[in-house]
Design a protein that fits this description.
Elements: E1 2-5, H1 11-14, E2 28-32, E3 36-40, H2 48-61, H3 77-90, H4 94-104, H5 116-133, E4 138-143, E5 157-167, E6 172-178, E7 189-193, E8 202-204, E9 213-216
Antiparallel strand pairs: 1-5, 2-3, 4-5, 4-9, 5-6, 6-7, 7-8
């Protein structure tokens, strides 16, 4: 068993202490001449990508996260920061295209193409491992549904992997997660069965949503407020 954890990172101390629960307000408004401001989005659907990116921003900058256990209000600097980082986490249009591509794949391999789980584990797990080995938490997009409907993109989720436990004998990896939906929870784990010629790869998230695939999102740092 080999274990690697980003030094100094732990969800209960370096993650936000408030839940991913916000009022039903637009995440942004766009001013239209002679019309007024047009609302876009709904914060009550969650700001998980902004929270995952924001936690890494605070950590990487060496700035403590706020002590508050209440989500920031819509007019605060922190709320606006989380919204900006949410949109950054989408990496438009390519990031959304990645979600949609993986959403359409079957779970298991079929004939000459790889299923969603195998693509995630073969292509993305090495990137995540390398980033954690380098001392940085790795942001992940979790694909939780199978669908050809773009409207179902909203059901996917984002987290931050900060460590892993690799058991080479069993071929399993436990990714340690900061999950915005599980504030102050140091026990969140995404379990990967790496698979081989005889064993299909698999992804499990005990206590979390069904996860069909994941990928390392295109993070770049921003200064926290």
């Amino acid at each position: 068993m080999s274990s690697v954890i980003v030094p100094g990172f732990l969800p209960s101390t370096t993650g936000f202490h408030f839940p991913n629960s916000f009022p039903k307000v637009p995440v942004r408004t766009v001013p239209i001449p002679h019309v007024g401001e047009i609302p876009i989005g709904d914060a009550s659907g969650g700001l998980c990508g902004g929270m995952a990116y924001g936690v890494r921003d605070f950590f990487q900058a060496g700035v403590p996260v706020p002590d508050s256990t209440e989500p920031p209000g819509p007019r605060t600097k922190l709320f606006k920061f989380l919204v900006d980082r949410l949109f950054d986490s989408f990496d438009l249009p390519w990031g959304v295209a990645r979600y949609f591509e993986l959403m359409q794949l079957p779970d298991q391999d079929h004939f000459f193409f790889r299923g969603a789980a195998r693509r995630a584990i073969q292509d993305e797990w090495p990137r995540v491992q390398q980033e954690i080995d380098s001392g940085f938490p790795s942001p992940l997009g979790l694909v939780t549904v199978r669908s050809i409907n773009p409207m179902d993109l909203k059901h996917n989720h984002q987290v931050l992997a900060y460590g892993y436990d690799l058991d080479e004998d069993s071929g399993k990896v436990e990714l340690r997660l900061y999950d915005p939906n599980r504030e102050d929870d140091d026990d969140a784990r995404l379990i990967l069965t790496l698979g081989d010629d005889e064993t299909d790869p698999a992804i499990e998230y005990p206590g979390g949503p069904t996860v069909r695939a994941f990928f390392r999102t295109a993070y770049s740092p921003a200064d926290p407020p």
